[in-house]
Amino acid sequence: MICCNCGHEYMSGNICPACGADNVLLIKAKTASLRQYNKGVSYAREGDYSAAIEALRECLLFDKYNFVARNLLGIAYFQTGLVTDAIREWIISTSIKKEKNPAQKYIDSLQKSGRFLEKCGDAIGLYNSALEQFKLGKNDLAVISLKKAADINPSFTEAQNVLTAYYISIKDRQKAKKYISKVLKTDKRNPRALEYLSELTNQEDIIHIDKRDLKNGNGGGYNENLAKGSSVSFYKRFKKIFKSQLFVFLFGAAISAVIFATLAVPALTDMKSTTIDNLNKRIQTLEDENANGSSTFAMKYKNLEAEVTRLQKENDEYKAQYSAQQQQLDIENAKSFIEKNEYSQAASLLNKIDDSLFDDNTKSEVSALRSQCYPQAAEEIYSSGVQKLQDGNTTEAQNDFLLAVKLAPKSDKADNALYFLAEIEETNGNPSQAKSYYERIVNEFSNSDVYKEAESKIMELSKNVQQ
Amino acid sequence: MIDFKDEIKKYEQILELDDIEDSVHSTDLKDIMDMLGYIASVKGFQNNTRSRG
Q: How far from chain centre, in Å, is Cα A26?
């Protein structure tokens, strides 16, 4: 048999002859230690760190050398904000097992994040000083310290538990519940937090709700649990209060509506009616002004009309001046053409002159120029017309004959020009116009060489008309 | 309703950072075997005394 304590091999009995250890007891102790360790692991996995701490401490009571249990105990302490206890366990663990011990990693990790460690230390310091302040009756200062500690290390359950106890004592349930909830989030079944929650739920109105929950089969077993139940009861109480307040609010709103309808609405209606009357009067005034032409718009319109008329007149004057100047230039050019014996071009310019634009002297001058060039021009134009007719340009020939007749209605060529015009009209299917030309020949040119032809044409066309 | 004055007495001071080292050194680790050993040794001493007497 090998001694569990010293490793000495001996033949019989429970007691090791080398170290004197009772191996039966030793094995039983080791077994008990392992059992507690397993419990601790299980609790820690569930997040029930208080139970884990208790189990692991029992485990170490059976076997102080169980460094694995000690490491886990450190972790459980760390999770609940007891960082210094955690470090202490890990240091002891490393002294038991120097190599391949994860506790060393935990310590190294904490030392690396020095600021975090410092903060955790501050939180513990604040907690300790808060306990002293409470004892001295300086509750306000103590609460400030604890709140700060809980803020620095949100998983510091002990600080939160003290705060809960304080808030229960001053009947501030909301804050008490807040801290209970925080503790239970960190440590699922923290005994103190559960005790405080029970204290809260034992109060009359909450008990009522809880009884109902029990009737509904929701009882038994604390949950994330009772915290939720208390939230539900709180919600129901809130709803109850809110309902009564809602009724008061609605009643007030209804009264306000009635007052508004009886007082404010008629006043508003009168105000609107007055506004409408004023607007109607304004419309009427504007309509009258518009009809009389005395409105601002009508006055402006009249002024603008006068301005337009004045400008149009000015424009016409300028146009006339320009035209006179242009025609004066044409007269000069016509003179120049006459000097060069280019009568048809001179006649073309003189034909376009508007005599009314000039004084009598100019009128006489224009008339003299016309007399000087028109007959020759008419002859030239007539000849051009004949040529065009021969070339088959009937339309241009017609224009030339018309111009020749216009320029010199009594010239020697005028009767022939009229005859050609009559023939062109006949060809174009205008017998009446053709007849009028023939008639002019008969009436105005009794000595014409086409007189007889014109006469017979008149007869012919008259017959055709009769038929 | 809890009595806060009584309640606060249930809470103990927590080990501070500066005190960890002293705490480790002063901790006399004992487990059930130590206690049993102690009891056995005390018993043996008493037996020896009786037998001498």
A: 80
Q: DSSP H helical segments within A47-172, as ranges? A: 49-62, 67-79, 83-96, 102-112, 114-135, 139-152, 157-169
Tell which of B21, B26, B32 to mutate to test the A interface (max A CBs under 10 Å). B32
Structure-block tokens of residue B40:
């056995």
pLDDT at A232: 55
Report residue A231's pLDDT band, with 50, 70 and 90 as the boundaries: low
Q: With a cut of 50, say whether residue A258 has pLDDT above it.
A: yes
Give the position of tokens 């518009």: A290
- A22:B40 CB<8 A: yes
Q: At what angle do helices A157-169 and A114-135 cross, to 10 degrees?
A: 30
- What is the rounded CA–CA span in Å between residue A436 and residue A458? 9
pLDDT recorded at residue A131: 94
For the CA atoms of A56, A61, A63, A68, the dihedral, rounded to the nearest 10 degrees, stands at: 20
Q: How far is the C-alpha of A57 from the C-alpha of A64, rounded, in Å?
A: 9
> A132 CA to chain B: closest CA distance, Å?
9
Residue B22 in contact with partner chain A when CB distance is under 8 A: no
The reply to whether A29 touches chain B by the CB within 8 Å rule is: yes
Average pLDDT of span A168-194 = 92
- CA distances A31 to A27, A60, A286, B40, Å, are 6, 12, 112, 21
Q: Quote the pTM value.
A: 0.49
Is residue B33 within 8 angstroms of chain A, CB to CB? yes
Query: Is the predicted pLDDT of residue A243 greater than 90, yes or no?
Result: no
Q: Does A161 touch chain B (CB under 8 A)?
A: yes
* pLDDT(A249) > 80: yes
pLDDT at A221: 40
CB A354 within 8 A of CB A323: yes
**Is a pLDDT exceeding 60 seen at residue A213?**
no
- Chain A CB contacts of B15 under 8 Å are 82, 84-85, 88, 124
Task: Using a CB–CB cutoff of 8 Å, tell me whether B6 touches chain A.
Answer: no
Task: State the average pLDDT over residues B13-29.
Answer: 84
For residue B23, the distance in angstroms to the closest alpha carbon of chain A comes to 8
Answer whether residue A75 shows pLDDT above 50: yes
User: In sequence order, what are the residues at sequence separation of 6 or more whose Cβ sits closer than 8 angstroms to the Cβ of residue A52?
Assistant: A39, A40, A41, A43, A44, A72, A73, A76
Q: From the list B15, B27, B36, which residue is nearest A92 (CB)?
A: B27
In this structure, which amino acid lies at residue A130? A
Percentage of chain A lying above the pLDDT 70 cut: 90
Q: Would the pLDDT of A362 be above 80?
A: yes
